[in-house]
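Recall that a protein's primary structure is simply its ordered list of amino acids. Everything else, from secondary elements to tertiary packing, is in principle encoded there. The following example makes that idea concrete.
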Amino acid sequence: MRRGALGCETGARRRLPTLDGGEASLRDLRGSVVVANLWGTRCLPCRDELPELVELARIYADRPVVILGLAVDSGDIDEIRAFLEDFGVEYPNWMMGMDDAVATFGAVGFPTTVMVDAEGWIRKELLGPQTAASLTEEIEALLP
């Protein structure tokens, strides 16, 4: 597992397209614990995991926690938006290609969930579908 700061060009500073047509970077989220979930529209385990992430976003709506979806090679903005709407996803989602997912997070499969502390350090990488309960434990360990 890679552990380190997201301060390199391939990490925190890399700007990724957002679903509203803008760009954002992980650096923009400093000060919050980030649960970055790499997923794909054609990934069945990713689909199974989405309700857990929706629940997690509800639980932490008033806390310094960001649930962030990173749609990897999942189509254009309209396709991704429609997919997320079908699952009731309201937390932010950005887009990235497979090469970026591998270079930035060392992703080897999907879903992959990356736990980032409020200072921007990757603290844990989790492969496979997660539950709201298991991610709550991870988040609570990172909150001040």
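DSSP finds four helices and eight strands in the chain. The longest strand covers residues 65-72.
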